[in-house]
Amino acid sequence: MKNLNSKVFAFLKLVAPIAMVAMFGSACSEDKQQGKLKDLPPVEIPKELPGLYSGRMPCDDCDTKMIRMNLNEDSTVIVVQAKIKDTAVTDTLYGTYTYADDVIKVSLSDNSIHWNYRRDGVGNLSYLTSAGTLYEDANGMHMDLIRIFKAPVMSKKAPETKSEENQEK
């Protein structure tokens, strides 16, 4: 009897791992079939130009210049720029823009500032040199403004503070 038990145990030691691998493999293949995702429709990029754009711009008198530019439907533009050197200075600039021959021409501060952009295939704006070529910095990076499709909503509500009555408890 002892000999029979050892033979059964040896058989189970050999068959059990093979059976477990087979069950695991079949369970995984079922999961893959059940969990297969359907193909999603392609994302449509809005064709209109007006909207919010954000990115970095070249700056001769600062370390970094970040801008947030809102192109309005009435061809006006509002730019909030932050120049960072030793400290950060934020300015709001107003102006107009035109769109012709695939070039967006932005004129700010009573025509004292001019920026030109070309729109890429995904709706972003690429900064152009005065010669009309894509701007590249010393590292070969382009200055692109990314299209923000859903602008964040800024809360104007002041944060709640605990009243004196609640603080004493």
What is the topological layout?
Blueprint: H1 2-34, E1 51-57, E2 64-71, E3 76-84, E4 88-100, E5 103-108, E6 113-119, E7 125-128, E8 144-148, H2 164-168
Antiparallel strand pairs: 1-2, 1-8, 2-3, 3-4, 4-5, 5-6, 6-7, 7-8
Short characterization:
This protein is α+β, with helices and mostly antiparallel strands and 169 residues long. Helices cover 22% and strands 35% of the residues.
Question: Strands of the largest sheet, in order across it?
Answer: 1-2-3-4-5-6-7-8
Largest sheet: 8 strands, antiparallel, barrel
End-to-end separation in angstroms reads: 77 Å
Low-confidence stretches: none
DSSP strand count: 8
Secondary-structure element string: HEEEEEEEEH
Percent in strands: 25-35%
Average pLDDT works out at 80
Based on Cα principal axes, name the global outline. Answer: elongated
Provide the structure class. Answer: alpha+beta
Continuous helix count:
2
If you compute it from the alpha carbons, what radius of gyration comes out, rounded to the nearest whole angstrom?
31 Å
Helix share, percent? 10-25%
Describe what you observe in this structure.
- This protein is α+β, with helices and mostly antiparallel strands.
- The protein has two helices and eight strands, in the order αββββββββα.
- It has helices spanning 2-34, 164-168; strands at residues 51-57, 64-71, 76-84, 88-100, 103-108, 113-119, 125-128, 144-148.
- It has an eight-stranded antiparallel beta barrel.
- The chain is elongated.
